[in-house]
């Protein structure tokens, strides 16, 4: 069954590629379902912007790891952006409501690593995800409040989202392994203040609910309570986007989490700190390089106290494929000695290398083959290095 799903997904993607190559009319649409007979632009003009994305990843572990395996995961992300200024006359106010459904299984257990090779796996149910309001005060200040995840605004960049691996896709992975914040599609209560004094400088301060049940997907995103064991994570981030003539961005941030965390050695810790820094720049036309580092001194709580990632993203590498992306990623995760003691292993590190190419079939559809090489899965030295082949299909309706 798993083999059939894997082959079916790749054949479907190939058929789609053939169709869109042969049909210029289809090729020009921003949405697979087009404009709904002119209803979509009318809704947008009135302040209602619906959206629906479908993503799937088909992967096969072909070498190393614990065993060979194939799996398929899928995800629906749908919702609506509301311009409350157009709808109700509330100046500079917007609202977002979204839903996520995840289905399928990952081959992560067959690889045996700490990073999942199939990034859209996790909590395979339906969720109410975002439910928040954002208010802008002129051009410099903005406040966001409601149900959301910290990676909407912190410790993340669009460059990370081209990876099929959780080692880099999403917010900095080390923050999730130690449970200091949540990420898509796990919503918590939170808020963020943003100050943008100039085009080059931006400051953000946020506070988000955190707790032992923050990854509990069985409530389908409908548990709005604040439990007695919950605490808060306070995040601060500074962004610098200098006007160099090339797209350049640097951000540095810190996460301060206040709640009881279980120590690997026993007992609890009531405070956890992590710092991070990211830099990216366009080093040639279409070619962007980036690097990120994150560190926590709290080895008794942080599973990966040190994470370093780097990558390249080349838009339009091949003639006639100006919208395609060729990507390379590398991530190093240093595992905590205390974590190793807790599981009775002498742990060291895990590394993930990934090479992929995103074929932008139309503005609303892409297919991205990828190969991942996972070095020292699990960090123990007991599992052979693994090779995972995958393909990511993304559709916008």
From TrEMBL:
Superkingdom: Bacteria
Gene3D superfamilies hit by this protein: Carbohydrate-selective porin OprB
Cellular component aspect of the GO annotation: membrane
Pfam family, one: OprB
Example GO molecular function: porin activity
UniProt record, GO biological process: carbohydrate transport
PANTHER family in UniProt: PORIN B
Family: Belongs to the OprB family.
Protein name according to UniProt: Porin
Organism the protein comes from: Roseibacillus persicicus
């Amino acid at each position: 069954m798993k083999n059939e799903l894997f082959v079916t997904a790749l054949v479907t993607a190939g058929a789609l590629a053939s169709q869109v190559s042969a049909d210029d009319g289809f090729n020009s649409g921003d949405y697979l379902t087009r404009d709904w007979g002119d209803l979509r632009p009318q809704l947008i003009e009135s302040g209602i912007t619906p959206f629906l994305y479908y993503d799937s990843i088909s992967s096969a572990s072909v070498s190393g790891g614990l065993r060979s395996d194939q799996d398929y995961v899928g995800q629906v992300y749908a919702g609506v952006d509301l311009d409350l200024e157009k709808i109700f006359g509330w100046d500079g106010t917007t609202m977002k409501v979204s839903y996520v459904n995840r289905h399928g299984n990952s081959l992560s257990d067959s690889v045996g690593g700490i990073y999942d090779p199939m990034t859209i796996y996790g909590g395979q149910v339906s969720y109410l995800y975002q439910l928040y309001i954002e208010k802008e005060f002129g051009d410099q200040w903005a406040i966001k409040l409601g149900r959301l995840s910290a990676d909407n605004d912190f410790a993340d960049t669009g460059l990370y989202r081209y990876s099929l691996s959780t080692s880099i896709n999403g917010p900095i992975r080390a923050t999730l392994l130690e449970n200091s914040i949540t990420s898509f599609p796990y919503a918590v209560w939170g808020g963020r203040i943003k100050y943008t004094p100039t085009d080059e400088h931006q400051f953000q301060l946020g506070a988000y609910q955190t707790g032992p049940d923050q990854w509990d997907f069985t409530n389908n995103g409908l548990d709005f309570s604040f439990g007695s064991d919950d605490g808060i994570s306070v995040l601060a981030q500074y962004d610098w986007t200098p006007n160099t003539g090339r797209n350049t961005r640097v951000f540095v941030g810190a996460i301060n989490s206040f709640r009881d965390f279980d120590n690997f050695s026993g007992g609890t810790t009531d405070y956890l700190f992590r710092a991070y820094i990211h830099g990216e720049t366009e080093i040639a036309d279409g070619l962007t390089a980036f690097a990120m580092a994150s560190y926590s001194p709290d080895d008794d709580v942080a599973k990966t106290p040190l994470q370093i990632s780097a990558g390249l993203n080349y838009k339009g590498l091949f003639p006639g494929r100006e919208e395609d992306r060729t990507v390379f990623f590398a991530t190093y995760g240093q595992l905590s000695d205390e974590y190793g003691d807790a599981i009775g292993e002498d742990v060291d590190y895990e590394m993930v290398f990934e090479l992929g190419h995103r074929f932008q079939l139309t503005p609303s559809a892409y297919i991205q083959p990828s190969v991942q090489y996972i070095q020292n899965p699990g960090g123990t030295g007991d599992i052979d290095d693994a090779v995972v082949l995958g393909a990511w299909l993304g559709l916008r309706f």
